[in-house]
Design a protein that fits this description.
alpha/beta, 2 domains, 6-stranded mixed sheet, binds guanosine-5'-diphosphate, binds 6-O-phosphoryl inosine monophosphate, binds magnesium ion
Length: 443
């Protein structure tokens, strides 16, 4: 079926850096304009924080639209830890929210065996470890690609036990054969617990691709919520220091089961600076008091693992690349408040390598770790006065230096800023008029 030819009804929201850009906040903010919010990749490595008045939610698997009354969907491209999902659904319901959820029967299941494999693989890498979240993400995606993974539909089938036993046999070959370690998981108990949790979720399991396709065909508005970030993408990121899924906008189609023409508009989220958790090159990383100041003011500690995030300045070489590989037209810039009070803000405009200027993002992490960022200093801003008026959401009264920073970034990367975030709460969000429908006041 053709996608509807009238105004675009879908939007993909992706991270443009190394994750934790504030996607959860942005999706929650935009979700009131959408009927359905869909996760299409990643798993419990994601931690999307939403601050609603008194409550802070840190969602790992549920799409962030769940707190705005949207129907939420976990697509086939997501890897699902049944226990975490069940607990998350129960927690959100206990806080008084309805959870209308569709879970893909095709999604692969993260089991305790994958989690053991994650630890073994990291240990085997020694000093070259990735610094994963240890949630079993890599092994679950690799069991999927290797065609011995276990899916939601397998564990809900009448012969689930036989399918599980075949899966355990394949893991045993990995753990005992490759790593020469004993399987440290009670496989009977793991089967029981995965199956019990999925049985509890069974009424929500179905053909999520058909659900999303029907919603779009009928003109309902669908938001696709990315996890991780472009520089962690398995193809486009700083390989091998990446996650194991495609995090870019195109994955919204494959990770959901709708055609690419349904994925019409892309909004990329970036911080006004950058952070990274885990290992891998980060050209604009800064240390010492400047990094500590950003980390403390921005609460830059991992949502999933609590690790301190590495901090650095905005890298426009990487951002231009991320805008290109996602087809981003709109930007949401977050955490502008964290830089408030600085006299000037460094932004990296190009790299230098062995006396040569580099303006493209290199594929080789060895090259990326040797480049020297070339900075320009932009005038800093103060939001103290502006933030005191918590009802202020007017772009035109923001400090001119902040608007100048935004304009500079837009011109460098060729995309328009639709939203500016100046605090974790919903009210600390400024819409830039006339950029796109849902970001326009009174849309
Ligand atoms: P995500 O993984 O992209 O959803 O981002 P995380 O939730 O992991 O990390 C972003 C953190 O910054 C969360 O603690 C948010 O509550 C917080 N946050 C989001 N936007 C802003 C902002 O504009 N200012 C400040 N100070 N905090 C923000
Ligand atoms: P959200 O959705 C930040 C990082 C890990 C590690 C690498 C691989 O909250 O932005 P994995 O466990 O996926 O195999 O780890 O990717 N990582 C994230 N960093 N935000 C995330 O998600 C991340 N998910 C994975 O720290 O470096
Ligand atoms: Mg996060």
């Amino acid at each position: 079926m053709e996608p509807p030819s009238n105004a675009p009804r879908s939007l993909v929201v992706v991270g443009l850096q190394y994750g934790d850009e504030g996607k959860g906040k942005v999706v929650d903010y935009l979700a009131r304009h959408f009927d359905v919010v869909v996760r299409f990749q990643g798993g419990t490595n994601a931690g999307h924080t939403i601050v609603t008045g008194d409550h802070t939610f840190k969602l790992r698997l549920l799409p962030s639209g769940v707190l705005q009354g949207c129907t939420v969907v976990i697509g086939n491209g997501v890897v699902v830890d049944p226990q975490t999902l069940r607990e998350e659904v129960e927690h959100v319901r206990a806080q008084g929210f309805d959870v209308e959820l569709v879970i893909s029967e095709r999604a692969h299941v993260i089991t305790p065996l994958h989690i053991q494999l994650d630890a073994l693989r990291e240990a085997a890498r020694g000093t070259g470890k990735v610094g994963t979240t240890r949630r079993g993400i890599g092994p679950t995606y690799s069991s999927k690609s290797s065609r011995w993974g276990i899916r939601v539909c397998d564990l809900l089938a009448p012969d689930a036990r036989a399918r599980w036993d075949a899966f355990v046999g394949a893991v045993r070959t990995q753990v005992e054969g490759v790593h020469s370690e004993p399987l440290a998981v009670d496989t009977d108990e793991a089967f029981r617990s995965c199956r019990d949790d999925l049985e509890a979720l069974r009424p929500m399991v179905g053909d999520s691709g058909r659900f999303v396709h029907t919603a779009l065909s009928e003109g309902r508005r669908v938001l696709f919520e990315g996890a991780q970030g472009t520089l962690l993408d398995i193809d486009h990121g700083t390989y091998p220091y990446v996650t194991s899924s495609n995090c870019v906008a195109a994955a919204a189609a494959t990770g959901t089961g709708v055609g690419p023409l349904f994925v019409s508009r892309v909004l990329g989220v970036l911080k006004a600076y950058m952070t990274r958790v885990g290992m891998g090159p980060f050209p604009t990383e800064t240390n010492g008091t400047q990094a500590d100041r950003i980390r403390e003011r921005g609460h830059e500690y991992g949502t999933v693992t609590g690790r301190p995030r590495r901090c650095g300045w905005l890298d426009l070489v990487a951002l231009r690349y991320a805008v290109r590989v996602n087809g981003v037209r709109y930007l949401a810039v977050t955490k502008a408040d964290v830089l408030s009070g600085m006299e000037t803000i460094p932004v990296c405009v190009s790299y230098e390598l062995d006396g040569e200027e580099l303006t493209d993002f290199p594929a080789d992490p060895a090259v990326l770790s040797r480049v020297r960022p070339v900075y320009t200093e932009l005038p800093g801003w103060s939001l103290e006065e502006w933030c005191a008026d918590t009802t202020a959401t007017d772009y035109t009264v923001l400090p001119p230096e902040l608007r100048g920073f935004v304009r500079y970034v837009e011109e460098c990367v060729g995309a328009r800023t639709a939203l500016l975030s100046v605090g974790p709460g919903r009210s600390a969000t400024v819409r830039v008029p006339g950029v796109f429908e849902e970001a326009t006041p009174h849309a």
